[in-house]
Structure formats: C-alpha cells, structure tokens
Amino acid sequence: MPRRRDLLLLPLMLSPLARAADVAGWRRTAFEAHSLADTLAALGLGAPQPSKDVTLQVPELSEDGSVVPVTLGCALPGVQRLLLCLEKNPSMLAAVFEPGPTVEPSFTTRVKVQQSSPVHALAVLADGRVLSATREVRVTLSGCLSAGDLELERPGQPSVIRVQAAGTGAMVRALMKHPMESGQRKDEAGRAIPAWHIQQVRASVNGQPVLTAYWGPSISRNPFLQFALKGAKSGDRVALAWADNRGASRSDEVTFA
To answer: How far is CA 98 from CA 82, 139, 184, 187, 233, in A?
Structure first.
C-alpha cells in the first residue's frame, strides 16, 4: 500500500512553484485570451492542423457542466506540449501539459464548461507543428454555479495520490483539494468572488521533475489528474506539488509498491 506524507524538502520543486503564484509572460497572456487565435498568438504558435494522431475524449452530453471529464493525448513522438481549450468559456485556455520523456503524452482531468461548446486539444511537436482535434460537448447545467451551490473547501489538505502498475510502467491518479474559484461567481450580495485556483502543478519521480502543468480557472473544483509513467519500478517515490494564484502551495508523495 503506498505511503503518503508531506514533503519537507523539495527545493527543486518548491522554489519554482512559489514563484508561480504570480504567473507572468506568455502564461498570463495565454490564459487571459478569449479566442483560439489569441491563445495561439500568446504562445507563439502557428495555425493548428487537424490530425487523427491527436486524441480527445469528452462526453457529447454532460448534465453537470461543473465536472466534465476530458482526456487528451497525442500518439506521435516529440510532443512538447498538450493544450486544452474550451471555446465558450471566459478563459479559453484551460490547461497546458508539458510532459518529460518518462511521461506518456496523454492526460485526464475534469473541467468546468460554462455552456455548450467546442473543446479543442492541441499537440505542439518538437518540429514546430501544431496538430489538433475538436469535439463538441453539450451541457444542461452551467459550470458557473451561484455562490450557494457549493460549500467551498479550503486548500491545504493532503492530495490523494494512487500509483498502480500498468504495463511496463505505472498509472498515476491524483485528487487535489482546492476550491478552484473561477472568478465568475457572485456571493449573496451580488459581489464577484475573486478567482482562486491552482496555476502550476509539478510531478517528480525520486526528486527529478517529470511533468509540469499550467492550469487556468476552468479546471474543476478538487482537481483530478491522471497520467502514465514509463518504466516505473517498485520503490520509486512519486511526488506531486502545486501552487495557486494566492501564493499557497502544497506537496505530497507516495511510494510505488
């Protein structure tokens, strides 16, 4: 059974995560973009080309737009980034995943969808190509709920991390405790609730970073993340650390049995 404990010493991960509390440069511009063209321009990317090598799984119909599961990936080698975009959300860019060589370029998470919308997955390859896949999701209940609909959970509780054998490696599943306020909701007095969400996530194996992800306010409350590790072996220490836009951060670790 994997052991979970707070990491007291992760200087390689914690110092960049602390600085991530105030996202700047391309990340800020990209996550504030309202169109796919502006998002690509902020990231310095060209027009995407549809490709069957990019995979995107999203339900055609979701009764609850606040928790919509999405899986995106790319079967080609040399994937530098995977981008998840929700066309009709106020912040179009939902997530950027930057996998290292020991992480499969395929990720599952959950997002808030404000209204029925096209969903785009984009793969940025080492040769500069941008490939894409698009699916449509219809929602019956908006992902932007009123303030009374959710009892907000304060961050700081341990993340739940599970590492299970899968083929020649391992599958990592993590559930992080965070309210992930989008900044779109209002309190009972009609005042806007400020955005409060995780901005950066880093995964490491035995102290070495293997994955970096940047998230916007469209990721669902208590974020879920799933990815596969290549060549993981018993005894490997798998750690997950995050930082949010208010400067809070947390790290947790399990040992792959």
So the answer is: 7, 29, 27, 35, 22
* Block residue for tokens 């880093």: 202
Listed residue (106, 21, 113) closest to 60, CA to CA? 113
111 - beta bridge partners? 68, 219
The CATH number that domain 4-252 falls under is 2.60.40.2470
Token couple for 92: 């179009």
- Write down the domain spans for the chain: 4-252
Instruction: Please work out, in degrees rounded to the nearest 5, the angle formed at the alpha carbon of residue 154 by the alpha carbons of 151 and 157.
Output: 125
- Can you give the pLDDT of all 257 residues of the chain as single tens digits? 444 444 333 333 444 444 443 444 567 899 999 999 999 999 999 999 999 999 999 999 998 899 999 999 999 999 999 999 999 998 899 999 999 999 999 999 999 998 999 999 999 999 999 999 999 999 987 665 444 444 445 666 889 999 999 999 999 999 999 999 887 777 778 788 888 999 999 999 999 999 999 999 999 999 999 999 999 999 999 999 999 999 999 999 999 98
- Token look-up 């989008």 returns 182
Q: Which two tokens stand for residue 203?
A: 């995964």
